[in-house]
Amino acid sequence: MSLSLPPDQLNSLWNEFLERWPLERLSDMQLSDYTGVGNDDSFCYWLESRTNDLGSIWGGSSFKFGVFRRKDKTHKESRLGRSYTSDFAWLDKYGNTPDEAFSSVLEQIVTVALSARAGDLEAIDQADLGEAVRWKIAFLYQDRNDLNIAPIYISELLREITDQSRISPAQAQRALMADRNNKEVFEYAGELLEIASAKMAEKLSTESPPVC
Fold first, then answer.
1. Three-state secondary structure readout of the chain
2. Tens digits of residue pLDDT in 124-160
3. Domain-by-domain residue ranges, the chain?
4. What's this model's pTM, rounded to 2 decimal places?
C-alpha cells in the first residue's frame, strides 16, 4: 500500500476532522449531527468518507455505526436484533428507539475517545462499538504528541502483521507502535499494510491447488 496523499496533507485532514469534531464537544452531539442521508458534514460521513485517506472503514452495513438514518425507505420488519422505522435503523442492544440507541452509541464514542486520549487501549478493546469504527475513532482522538495507535483498524490485519493469531487489537497496536522508531505514522502504516498484503498473498498462493 502506498500513501494516497503526502503525510502533510493527511495530517492537515486530521486537523480538519478535529476542528469539526473536537473531543470537548463530542458529548453535545445530537442524532441529527451523527447521521443523515446526503449530509456530508455528519460525524459518520466524516468518519467513513471524508477521512477515508486516514484509514478505511468501508465495508459491511451501516449497522456498524449502531444507528443510522435510512436512505431506503421501504418497509422492513424489525427482527434478528435490528429495528427499523421509516427514517432510522439501529441495533436493538442499544435501545428501543433511535434516540435511545444514539444515546447509548454516543456514550461508547465518548468513552473510546477519552480512552484513546489517555492511552488506555484496553478500554477501547472493551467498547461496545463495531471494531473498525471504534479503532478509527481511537486513532483520530489519541494524543498526537504521544502516538500509540496506527491507522489500521481491522484485527485480522493486525494479527497478520504481528504473526500472532490470538493477539488483541490493543496488544497489537502497542507492539507495532513500539517498533515505529519515530517514523511518520502514515508512512509506517503503509509499510505495515504492505507486509500484511504480502503475507496474505503468500498464504493464498500456498493454499491454491496445483494447476494440472
1. CCCCCCHHHHHHHHHHHHHHCCHHHHHHCCHHHHCCCCCCCCHHHHHHHHCHHHCCCCCCCHHHHCEEECCCCCCCCCECCEEECCCEEEEHHHCCCHHHHHHHHHHHHHHHHHHHHHCCHHHHHHCCCCHHHHHHHHHHHCCCCCCCCCCCCCHHHHHHHHCCCCCCHHHHHHHHHHCCCCCCHHHHHHHHHHHHHHHHHHHHHHHCCCCC
2. 999 999 999 999 999 999 999 999 999 999 999 999 9
3. 7-142
4. 0.93
